Amino acid sequence: MHTLYDTATVAPLDRYDYYRAGAGIELAPVTIHGRAPGQLSAVMSVSSIGVFEIEAFTWSADSEVVCRRTERLIRSSDPECYRLILNVSARPRLEQAGNRVALAARDIGLFDLSCPILSAQLPGRGAMRLVMVTFPRALIPLPGLGLRWLIGTALPRRLPGRGLIARFLIDLAATPEPEREPGLADVLQECVVGLIRQRLGRPNGITPRTHRLLQRTHIGHVIRRNLHDPELCPERIAGLMNMSSRRLHGIFQDMEETPMKLVKRLRLEKCQRSLRDPTLATTPVKEIIAAHGYVRPDQFARDFKHQFGVSATQVRALNRATVR
Hints:
Elements: E1 2-6, H1 15-23, E2 31-33, E3 40-49, E4 52-61, E5 65-69, H2 71-76, E6 81-89, E7 93-96, E8 99-102, E9 108-112, E10 117-121, E11 128-136, E12 153-154, H3 162-173, H4 184-199, H5 208-225, H6 234-240, H7 245-251, H8 259-275, H9 285-291, H10 297-308, H11 312-323
Antiparallel strand pairs: 1-3, 2-5, 3-4, 4-11, 5-10, 6-9, 6-11, 7-8, 7-10, 9-12
Helix pairs in contact: 3-5, 4-5, 6-7, 8-10
């Protein structure tokens, strides 16, 4: 994910205007209304995965702010897309096509970016966090009014797999570079199409294969949180997932990577990002790799060279030269 805008990067008195400008350059621009809050924090991070746009939005303020996607904005910028909005925390209110919905935690709402939308962002005890998945309408080929009767509504919690998909989207928003994850676009497509097919009462919604893909993605997120543990192994991963080792390996049976190959790849990617981080330029390589679970520097050196074709010292030297 890369940051589209973050109000923390500007002076407090400039944050409201900065936020309003940032909202105008989003994939589906909106206008911001309401008096300027005394305290405001707004961060939008985005990533493209195949035909999908993923946006993670965090917002908090001490007064209400209203966002509008108007007919005028639609005429000037219409991506012809649907959008799923997962509410992670707080309780945003949204209106579209005569429907009003207040999304509770882990609710998923369906919206059409070609229709006007009004949303109210309310002050509260904690920050509002949303994960939004935007995809072409053509991905859901339906005749006539298509999904018109569903837009502006929350998907029922009883839909099989809905909770698993909500957790998947939360994990996705926390992944540093989700666009690099192999097969993630296919997982997203199966989830989105399957969830909507189920809402329409059609077969082939969330299949067993989709369940495995979602679980595999969540396992990857759990592994990322525990890469610092040099003893991370299939048995420990299974314990963190509250499943048996046999079940863990069964989830990976039709995947290209085993659990430990995934651990190694994620560790190396994490080490590479740290080696390229200017703030860690003086941190010894041994400390960096130890922080990500590598015990033996010689093993790390071989693995890193095999994965990236260059040594860790070459990566750091190249990065220093680029910064200069």
